[in-house]
Every structure is written in C-alpha cells, then in structure tokens.
Amino acid sequence: xxxxxxxxxxxxxxxxxxxxxxxxxxxxxxxxxxxxRGIGENPTESDVQKFLKQxxxxxxxxxxxxxxxxxxxxxxxxxRDVQPQEFVDCLRVFDKDCSGNISSxxxxxVLTTLGDKLSTDDVDMLTSGLEHKGxxxxxxxxxxxxxx
Length: 148
Fold this sequence. Notes:
GO terms for molecular function: calcium ion binding. The protein is mainly alpha-helical. Helices cover 55% and strands 8% of the residues.
C-alpha cells in the first residue's frame, strides 16, 4: 500500500471539484474530514486535527490535490478492517455476570465519554430497539452497528 490507485486519485479529484467553492482547484482546509470520509476513510477527529496541523498550521489555507494525496495515503495505511469480534471482546469487559448483556447506562457512558465521543442522540439511535430492562445484548449491538 505505498500509493493510491487511479480510482482513489479520481475520488480525491471529484471531492475537490465538489468542495471547491472558488474554482481554483483547491478546497478549504475545514473540509478535510468530509473529504476523507467521502472517499471511504474513517479518520478520528484526532487524526483530522493532526493532518490539519501538518498541512495548515495557521488554519486558513486552501488544500490542493498534492496536499491531499499524502494525507489520504496516510489514512489508508492506518486503516484496517476491524472484525466484529474485536468490538464484542471489548464490550465483554463490562459484562459482569457473563450473561451476554451490559447495562445500557454503562454502554451510554462509555460511548459518550471515551474516544471519539458520541452525542446522546447518536447513542439513542444506535441502541434503539436493543434495550431490554436496562440491558443491551452487546453481540446484537455490535451486529446492528456494523451492519449500518
């Protein structure tokens, strides 16, 4: 994975065309996260901030294709396929009685306070229909989230 393929370069060019509001073949640096997600990457907010500091330390630069290619490549190299079982194993830590369920309040706390924090509305959406008597079956939760 040392370079981007033609399809990925084309996707970046299309993203620039979409976000270029001036017509100079560049995009505002604030569109970086949307562009990366638009080409299928899923950078964390921390990753996006790191990339922005590299390419636009002052916060007012327009980014060209030449700026975007190394960022997209870095994202591509960092990403990997995560298997559902990895998430299940992480959530199993909260299953105190080995029942296959965790407290919905505890799940909500984890999702809204750790890592890339979700909003309460996002958590409500993700757990909708999965809560039963204050508990969530975490394997069912992971399947639901990963299936979109």
